[in-house]
Amino acid sequence: MFAGLSRMSKLRPLVLCGPSGSGKSTLLKKMMEDFPDKFGFSISHTTRKPRPGEVDGQHYHFTTVEDMQKAILDGQFIEHATFCGNMYGTSKAAVNFVREQGKICVLDIDVQGVKQVKNTDLDPLYVFIKPPSLDELKKRLTARKTETEESLLHRLKVASEELDYGTEDNFDCIVINDNLEHAYVQLKTFLESQVFGDK
Ligand SMILES: Nc1ncnc2c1ncn2[C@@H]1O[C@H](COP(=O)(O)OP(=O)(O)OP(=O)(O)O)[C@@H](O)[C@H]1O
Fold first, then answer.
1. Does 26 contact ligand 1 (Cβ within 6 A)?
2. pLDDT by residue (tens digit) across 69-88?
3. What are the alphabetically sorted keywords of the record (predicted)?
């Protein structure tokens, strides 16, 4: 029992947070390629309808608003949010499922999600990915060609608020994503010293 617990305690989840376009997905991809067996993702719940090809319990746990609201009130969720009228959230059970498989659960969440996680007993390590500047962030989001003029402006407005929260008081590690290779070295150094070697 104690051996199991001490093994589990080494698998603190890893929160990756940062404004849209700061490079979370890009850095995560490199991290997963470098350490394919170390990390796992929890499967989120959502009240949106499955898209063609999406499998319940694999892409998402598809649920109803009523059931999800009940589970949230019951304290079963670590964080949740509503986007475009649909609810999304991460359950404690989904994170524990990853941990039971001996993997570090990665949570790619926004500042609102981080604030919610901090109110739980999850005790993850928190990493904030920071763009070198708002100007550079705008350039990257524009070059990514995923945004309309309106969504770009919205993301930049949210980004400037999120950057105010991205301080050492709130995060264990702040990675400045100026040059991708440099940023990845910062992240990898943190992983190797704090996440894998977690006491
Ligand atoms: N260091 C870098 N230098 C230049 N471009 C970068 C760098 N890091 C990431 N990018 C590019 O910036 C864009 C945004 O990166 P990415 O999609 O990883 O951000 P994100 O934080 O995951 O965004 P979202 O939250 O919207 O999913 C991508 O097109 C990516 O290729």
1. yes
2. 999 999 999 999 998 899 99
3. ATP-binding, Kinase, Nucleotide-binding, Transferase
Would you kindly state where each structural domain of the chain is located, as residue ranges? 2-195
ipTM summary value: 0.96
Closest CA to 31 of 187, 194, 198: 187
Look up 12 and say whether it is catalytic: no
- Among this protein's residues, is 51 annotated catalytic? yes
CATH of domain 2-195: 3.40.50.300
For residues 57 and 59, what is the distance between their CA atoms, to the nearest angstrom? 6
In the 8-state DSSP scheme, what is residue 43?
P
Q: Name the one residue in this structure whose structure tokens are 């008081």.
A: 169
- Residue 133: is its pLDDT beyond 70? yes
Nearest CA to ligand 1 atom 15: 23
Residue 165: count other Cβ atoms within 10 Å of its Cβ. Answer: 16
Q: 170: CA distance to ligand 1 center in Å?
A: 22
* Residue of 7, 12, 48, 144 marked active site: 144
Which residue in the block uniquely carries the two structure tokens 């170390």? 38
Atom from ligand 1 closest to the CA of residue 143: 29
